[in-house]
Amino acid sequence: MRRRRQILAAAVGVAALLLAACSGGSSSNSSSGGKAQSGGTITFAEQPGSPPTYIFPLYDGANSGNNNITYLQPLMWLPLYWFGHSNNAQATINYGQSMAYPPVFSDGGRTVTMKLKHYVWSNGKPVTSRDLEFWMNLLLAEKNNSAAYVPGGWMDHVAGMSAPSPYTFVLKFNVTYNQTYLLYNGLSILQPIPQAVWDKTSATGAVGNYDETKSGAVAVYNFMNKESMSLSTWDTNPLWQVVDGPWHLKPNTGFQVTGQTIMIPNKSYSGPDKPKASEFEELPFTSSTAEFTALQSGSVDYGYVPNTEIGDLGNLKSQGYSIKPWYEWGLTFVAINFSNPKYAPLLNQLYIRQAMQHLINQPAYIKDILLNYGTPTYGPVPTFPASSFLDPAETKNPYPFSTSAADALLTAHGWTVPKGGTATCTRAGSGSNDCGAGIASGSKLSIPLLYISGVPELQDEVEAMQGAFSSAGMQLKLAQAPANTVLSEAYECIGKPTSSCSASSTALSLLGSPVYTYVPIYFPDGDSLFGCGGATNAGNYCNSQVETLIKQMLTANGSASQTAFNTYQLALADQIPDLWFPNAAYQISAISPKLGGVAAQDSTAHIYPSVWYVKS
Amino acid sequence: MTRFLVRRVSQSVAVLIIVTIVVFAILHFLPGSPARAILGMRATPAAIQAFNVANGYNRSLPVQYLLYINRLIHGNLGFSYHFDQSVGSLLALDLPKSALLVGLSYVISLLIAIPMGIVQALRREKPLDHALTTFSFVGYAMPTFWLGILLVVWFSSDLHLFPSEGPQGASVTASFANPSGLVLPVATLTIVTVAQFSRFMRASAVENMLQDYIRTARAKGLPDWQIVTKHLFRNSVLPIITLVGLSLPGVLSGAIIVEALFNYPGMGWLFWTATGAHDYPVLMGFTIVVAAATVIGNLLADIAYAVADPRVRYQTS
Fold first, then answer.
1. Contact B31 A488 (CB under 8 A)
2. CB distance B165–A294 less than 8 Å?
3. What is the pLDDT of residues A397-455, one digit of tens each?
4. Which of A5, A64, A234, A293 to mutate to test the interface with B (most CBs of B within 10 A)?
5. Which range is least confidently modeled, A239-248, A341-350, B183-192, B286-295?
6. Dihedral over alpha carbons A315, A318, A321, A322 (to 10 degrees)
């Protein structure tokens, strides 16, 4: 009897739980047009599994994702020079949004003088050149912990700095740089941070001028890094409440370690575009499916549509959501490993790379697989958004899709292409009509490609590519792996000669789309991607002509630089250091009809919640 | 009993040590390096080297293992370089959330499946039995993600009865503050689990109904409800005890699909994300916790089995 009562009580308890749950579970959608109004909360969806992990603006490679460097930090701490725009997709300097006036170059370009506008910190103190000097001291002391550091780059050539007045900052270099390059890749990293609050080495220690010695700067960095990695204290730590941007974390409830981030307006914000909404909330998601469900239920104002759902947007569109692709300032390519001892003889042949490029049908992939949410890649400079960096000639595909052209290239170089089979080298040798150095007679044209798993459209693209390759006698052996595995496999041979690179290392690899973004170093020079020994040159591509052009475009100014830049990008487009591949949208955004002010999506991936507003 | 416990605990510790060795070796033989995976394609050789030194990856595998075990003994599960948090704090946040989600679904499943199995046994081959069997088969065959999506479409999108997301918040207390968020994820897991448990319960009850002691009880004139509650239930529930014991790891390891679907980050989601990120410290911490739960679950099941069935006595000598 007692047991029956217990079971009954448990059943009643469960029923009560369900009833209690029912009472709080209703939700409602609202969708209305209207005018801009102050107040309200804007909700923004974070990418799946990408919560913010680092709040201190001096971040390393591990923390250089959009979750930190575009969605979080710049909303609170403004860079000296702002790149990107709220009303167009251009990845260009935006002086109106910047904290400083255009830099002035002197001394043959070796001295840069920057005049700060009169911004203030949220504690009422002015933002001064001392704050910039503080940043530079930390950056140079810890450049190996900066995601923007490139060995031998501008950080290694700083000859001195000074702050002659509270609003003037001067940097001196021991080499001359292309001024646009220096602005886009060097000065873009500069970031005033509140010296009078952050220049300390412990939570209880006094603020000092520790940054003025290298050991002191390291100690300050170590302290700030430690505080930044204490995620559970972000919204209670007074350090993070001193900001110069339009937003700051809502005290005590502004951050959950799961990624839920609530920001409120900085009442002392002294820049343009003061926030209209009373709260800006970033929502974390475990999967794109979960995000899409939330989007459909109306709990996300600015979200995204999973690629698998692109064909079925009727429900969202009927609710008034606008669907817009968001492209990043970057490019996509299939990385080629020129150091793989087994495949390098094949991949070193330009005609084989040209044949492969002829078999990648970018327009068809964009239209049929990406459903027009993609842009072509023809060289190192992104074709979208249109920019002055892009030579008009690079907007055309030098290797349009053509099986016959690929076939002709192979047969002209000593390959026999059987119908439906794999091409075989029948004319070995290094003459201009032979297969090429290192390719033995009887060799088969069979190359493996490793690509990332879990991205259906990428799989469709490589399978289409495999079919096209097959029709020209090239066997593409496909394998897939998680993104991070492909990344580390693709970089296994970086910096190694062929003799010390394993034959089992990947020959071709596709790391996603886009593969590489020119953020936060915005100049699309590709120096580290395609330069000999470049930090991100996974396949060890090295071409003396390209190397000379890179040096010219990074150091020359004026028309000489532009000429070198144009020659460089066209040379790379022709040389195919990697196989150019369609660039998929970073996300297909879905924007609620109740959210106003979203004029464009910035290709630098910056977001502008202070421009957005909740419609009345 | 004490000697039995001592022996079983010793075995369990040995199993745990072996598990750590095997998992440590497997993780480190996975293709790819954590340094590149974490630092990204822009990482300089110096940064890669610094990462490997900082995390001990430049040392031999046995040395790395011993260092790990040394830290583990001192209660340090390591630091997640993907989440920028200590593994201990990640587990402390996610484990209770998964335990609540999966544990609650197990409790509800048991409350439904045990009576359901007995009722099916009592009404064997009758329409009610067939109907419940059909429900079980459908529930058992239904993929979790599909069932979850159906529940979201019906109860969240169409009827607006429950939220489509699990309770949001870093800690488990947020779940108690918003119980409505738990309904759909718990229901998804419960339906599948009920189907599984009720089949075991039905089979066990049917088998026991044919035993002599039930016939004897009937011959003695005991009413049906007493036969069921005093004799049939106690003997039929034994397989369920074993199942529950074996389910303990599941309670702690979470439910990847349900957690991903309902935006409820718990242990399952943590493991999935850490795997993709080559986050070895998290993977090791997770594995150790789940291995310990498996061992403890088995131990508890054995003890409960002995308590529930007086015929079962373990040899302690």
1. yes
2. yes
3. 999 999 999 999 999 999 999 988 999 999 999 999 999 999 999 999 999 999 998 88
4. A293
5. B286-295
6. 110
Residue B106 makes CB contacts below 8 A (sequence gap 6+) with B193, B244, B247, B251
* Domain ranges, ordered by start, for chain B: 2-87, 92-308
pLDDT in tens, A84-102: 999 999 999 999 999 999 9
Cβ neighbours of A289 in B, within 8 Å: 149, 260-261
- Cβ–Cβ < 8 Å for A200, A207: yes
Between positions 43 and 102 of A, the ones with CB within 8 A of B are: 49, 53-54, 60-64
What residues of B are in contact with residue A4 (Cβ under 8 Å)?
A: 229
The token duo for B155 is 């109860």
Q: B229 touching A, CB under 8 A? A: yes
pLDDT tens for A480-517 read 988 888 888 899 899 889 999 999 999 999 999 999 99
Q: Rounded distance, CA B180 to CA B178, Å?
A: 6
Closest residue to B182, CB basis, from A21, A64, A286:
A21
Give chain A's radius of gyration (CA, Å). Answer: 27
Q: Do B170 and A257 touch (CB under 8 A)?
A: yes
CATH annotation of A334-375+446-584: 3.10.105.10
Interface confidence: ipTM more than 0.85 = no
Q: How far is CA B140 from CA B31, B121, B199, B255, B268, in A?
A: 35, 19, 10, 16, 21
CA distance A365 to chain B (A): 26
| Per-domain boundaries in chain A | 41-278+590-615, 334-375+446-584
A8-30: buried (b, 16+ CB within 10 Å) or exposed (e) per residue? eeeeeebeebbeebeeebebeee
Q: List the beta bridge partners of residue A93.
A: A83
Q: In this structure, which topology does domain A41-278+590-615 adopt according to CATH?
A: Dipeptide-binding Protein; domain 1 (3.90.76)
Which residues numbered 113-132 in B keep a CB inside 8 Å of some CB on A?
115
How distant is the Cα of A537 from the closest Cα of chain B, in angstroms?
Answer: 9
CATH of domain B92-308: 1.10.3720.10
